[in-house]
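Quick entry between incubations.
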Amino acid sequence: MLIGEELTSIYVEGNADRYVGEARGSRSRWVSRFRNSESVRGYLLLVPALLVVGALLLSPLAALVALSFASQSYFDIDYTPTLTNYRTIFAPAAEPVYFLGIPFYLESPIFMVLLVKSILMSLVSTAAVILLAYPMAYFLAFQVKRGKVIWIILITLPFWTSYLLRVFSWKIILGFNGVVNSGLVDLGIIAQPLDFLLYNPTAVVITLAHAWAAFAILPIYVSLEKIDRSLFEASVDLGDSWLKRFLRVTLPLSWPGVAAAAMLVFIPTVGDYVTPTLVGGREGIMIGNIVQSQFGKANNAPLGAAVSIVSMTVVAIGVLFFLWISGRRHGTER
Amino acid sequence: MSYKSFMRDLRAGTLTRRQMMAALASVGLVTTTFPKPGRAEDSCTVFTWAGYDDPMFFQPFLKKHGSAPNFAIFGEGEEGLQKLRAGFTADVAHPCTSYVGRWNDAGVLRPIDVSKVEQWNDIFPRFREIPGVVIGSDYFNVPFDWGNESILYRTDLVDAGANSIGLLTDEKYEGKLAMYDSAESMGAVSGVLSGAKDPFAMTDAELDAAKPVMKQINANMRFYWTDATQITQALAAGEIVGAWAWNAAVVDLKKQGVPVAYMRPKEGIFTWVCGMSLLENHAGSEELAYDYINAMLDPGTGKTLIEQYGYGHSNKQSFAQVAPERLEELGISDPDALLQHSRVYWPTPPETKEKLIKIFDEVKAGL
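Done. Structure below.
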């Protein structure tokens, strides 16, 4: 009876002195050491979280890795390990295919080309998000004196609706008969609706920049809020101009927030496929679309898995490099 | 613990907490794991194209059962297949005949007992022989609707004098056209334009020849559509001037008073035939599934389909109920001849299909 035993031992713990005095069996000593160890307690507290991470993150990832070494012919998946999929992605060709002036010496360059394109689009989006979010976070941290909670709620308000709806609303804003076009036409600024607003990479970048803004504002706000205000006074007292103060005090001290925001935005946007599907048109497609296609219409899940693994690896390497660079620059902070 | 002792302890208030928990747990276990017989018998889920969930298409079913079946929507044959392969459960699906063989190879379909299909003998004989409707000696699809795929264009904005589907490659309309997001359609169009012998079963050499045409078409596209309302809206607004479309879109736009025409191209018009299939992985009642199929084949439903969407029905009797002038106007007065002389979507061999999808993905990525 497990529960009974537990009850007893809790009772015993309550009367620890008496217990230790009465019986010094090796088992009980082991139990009390086990119970008093902080690290054991820590791990026990972590168990639910570890189980969730294991079940929902590690096992699907392991399955994806396993699937990427399988092969599919028509509707049958053969689980004999093979490198076919990776060979398809990296098979070299003598003649290069050029994308943005970069030569790709690959037999089927579509995967690497789209990966490079996605990373570029994501970098631009991330930069746009940070540039938009920083002033907002700055305002929130230093200018707002009362009712900060209301401001934070207002900032996160658009994020109470689903991601899909937010992306779709950009379609309405940028569309041919959308808010921007009909507004400009009504004002007499343009005669014909502009058709370069929607269905291109720019539309994807604009949409991503808005859709992920809250994920950047909040970490930057937190890091700005933490800065000791007396440091600002000190820098001004020592003769720094506003701009110098920002560059030498505010920005370096808020850098952890900026780096966290960049991670939070860059990593998920590289693999996004909903946004390019809805607002990207034929020019805005990204690596996520090709992965979706492999798992769907193209009927080749193992290749889709391999493309995902390659894409995740490249993004992980990029992110680690970024962290290493920021760590070197700001390593003295702690 | 027996029922008697449990009740006695319960009344006396001497039931322990653990006994109480055990009793509650067993109730919970039984209610969650016990099969639910009543539920499955009265439900029927239909996996179909957008626009067929309108009650006007299954009046006899409504009359008999008082409520509509459940609907789930797909936008393209491959997409529907992959959703079913991923474990989606429904009772009846609505694939087009050119896809039925592929769906059956994937093991998502089961044969249909045509003796339970009341109107089976009224279906045009030619439809009953299409590959996909019949595979080997079994029937896997009951033909229901058929229609065309061609260029739908704004008569005020497009010069369609050449009367050719080559319009899709005309640089004059760059960024002003839309294509159906389907490798099958894209392949068929570019196959015909590049002179393939059979656009539904191209050889490797023919696929290579078709790719440049696909690139030309791709360069002119504003977007690829998956839902017919995307093109009707864009055409009405003038965002695009032409699109590869189904004929229901024509009827819809003409109703709105938009100046459009549907091309009957010199290369021959494309025709598709779609129908009802029973799904292998089903949860609802088989009786309801057949009732739904019968309701779809009803001449009254056929009349609605012809008049509202401009599609043809598979039931001969439906055509008798529609005014001949209307049939003439829609261009479907002689279904048999139309089927014989147009380019009917034929099943594409699996290897060709896979290569086609790969090429289409590359073209869409700009490669």
